[in-house]
Automatic annotation (TrEMBL):
Keywords: ATP-binding, Kinase, Nucleotide-binding, Phosphoprotein, Serine/threonine-protein kinase, Transferase
EC number, UniProt record: 2.7.12.2
Keyword tRNA processing among UniProt keywords: no
Enzyme class, spelled out: transferase
GO biological process assignments: response to other organism; response to stress
InterPro entries: Kinase-like_dom_sf, Prot_kinase_dom, Protein_kinase_ATP_BS, Ser/Thr_kinase_AS
Naturally occurring in which organism (per UniProt): Escallonia rubra
GO molecular function: ATP binding; MAP kinase kinase activity; protein serine/threonine kinase activity
Protein name: mitogen-activated protein kinase kinase
Amino acid sequence: MNSPVIENLSDLEKLAVLGHGNGGTVYKVRHKLTMEVYALKITRFGEDAGCAAKVQQQATHEGEILKLVDSRFVVRCYGVLDSALDDGGDMYFVMEYMGGGSLQDVLRTRRRLPETTISRVARSVLEGLRYLHGMQIVHRDIKPSNLLINGRGEVKIADFGVSRVVADTMEECDSCVGTCAYMSPERVDPERWDGDYSDGFAGDVWSLGVVVLECHVGRFPLIPPGQKADWATLVFAICLGEKMAMPESASPEFHDFVCRCLEKDWRKRGTVEELLHHPFVTRCSSGRLVVDNAF
Ligand SMILES: Nc1ncnc2c1ncn2[C@@H]1O[C@H](COP(=O)(O)OP(=O)(O)OP(=O)(O)O)[C@@H](O)[C@H]1O
């Protein structure tokens, strides 16, 4: 689809609520003139002035990055409507509509996915990361709810709320941003794992490793079932835990792929380029993305 410019909220008609996130609500909308369907993400700035400023800064940052991105492995943004910013109001992102929902939705209903499907998910995410990293963008929040599926079963990376352009200066609380369950050891405990020297790209690979393993195991894989996923438990599991919930039925290729992603030392971890050539990824059929019975 060519990139239409959407400048007015009044051009859009709300059709349904697609979901809620930490920052706001996502609606299915239709452009009144073209009848094209989009997802409209509304980020609210909240009552608390300090918090609102932070969310506003994050949303503005998300908008700036989104406008630069044009890849078939990354959810497109067709407009950022920020006219309400002066009033400290909401911010609107007009996004490509991904009718298949998120990978999290798929895992909720199917629990486990076959390796062929996981392999295709991994490949799409790696292609998306190759594109983003090539633009010096670290995503920093790769997780199942940020991997969206369109009507053709294609998986794309979404949500740049906490990503950053590498050249940007890091904020003081930088290592706390994002979803800690999928965070790499060097982000969770930079002192122990030399995180201050990492450019962040390897952190996205770690997160992909957790997602891939979760798709096979059918639950968050770094802590035993039934254990509460509080901060301390997660930090221990991510930074020190030796045992991975590797399923017995996993193929040697899957096993090796996950181990390359979940290497605790970011300097030794697999790179996006290396993993795109990994047998677990190359064995999935070429050309098409994720199109099988799973989605
Ligand atoms: N472009 C889109 N097309 C279709 N559905 C979408 C789209 N973007 C988001 N959604 C749906 O809306 C839900 C909320 O998305 P949102 O990005 O606000 O939060 P999240 O990623 O789920 O959580 P968090 O705020 O913690 O990152 C998603 O889980 C997904 O189901």
